[in-house]
Amino acid sequence: MTVTLTEQNYPIYERLIKEYENHEDFSTRGGKFYMGSEEVTTYTFEMDYYFMMGDNRHYSYDSRFWGFVPENHVVGRAWFVLWSIRHNVEKIQTPEGVVESRSFDGIRWKRCFMGIK
């Protein structure tokens, strides 16, 4: 995949390019991007990367916290769903705006121990 480098996505891709793609000389200076002394505007990734989401979606330290994971760092595979609960979601108007209220609404038994393809 080829991405256009911007000041907004530099923090997202910097670690991938420097550490995983072995381009320690990748940098930004004055709003421009450099690979060594050569100015670059795009970058084509050499490896495949994955976004990993934790099993506790709202409170997991996952790719939202530590970024994308290169394929050669993936060491396992999910086999089945262990536990699946249903939430009752209600939108409540407060003086600060609309907030979501979640409450336990049962176990989704048909999903528990279901294999993952």
Describe the structure.
The protein is about 15% helix and about 35% strand. The chain has about 120 residues and is mainly beta. It has 2 domains: about 70 residues, no CATH class; about 40 residues, no CATH class. The longest helix is centred in the N-terminal third of the chain and has 11 residues.
Low confidence ranges: none
The overall strand count is 9
Domain count, please report it: 2
Distance between the termini: 25 Å
Largest sheet: 3 strands, antiparallel
Strand line-up across the major sheet: 2-3-4
Average per-residue pLDDT, rounded, comes to: 89
Number of helices: 2
Shape: flat
Helix content range of the residues, please?
Answer: 10-25%
Helix vs. strand class? mainly beta
What is the H-and-E element order? EHEEEEEHEEE
Radius of gyration: 20 Å
Beta-strand percentage range: 35-45%
Q: Keyphrases for this structure?
A:
2 helices; mainly beta; 3-stranded antiparallel β-sheet; 9 strands; two-stranded antiparallel ribbon
